[in-house]
Specification:
about 0% strand, mainly alpha, single chain, 6 helices
Length: about 90
Amino acid sequence: MTEANWPPSLVTSSPMLVMRVLPVLGTLPVLRLVAVGLTYPQIAARLTLSVRTVQNHVQNTLAKLQLHNKAQLVRYALENDVAGDVAGGDDGAG
């Protein structure tokens, strides 16, 4: 099932239910890196994706979680412990 085909019931369900679907779609790694403050180019380099693909993952996640901007997405990720253990990694920003 692609993100575009998610049933409305999934979107309106518990946010944690949505978080269980994100790893299957490859969006969770992007969300984790957004949550720790990496830029789209840094995320793209780390995950060997294009910057546009990273942007698409973020936009799709915002829509599915009914959020409006990246700041809300970061807050959601932190409140739901989505960031995991990625904060200590080398993001190339140093």
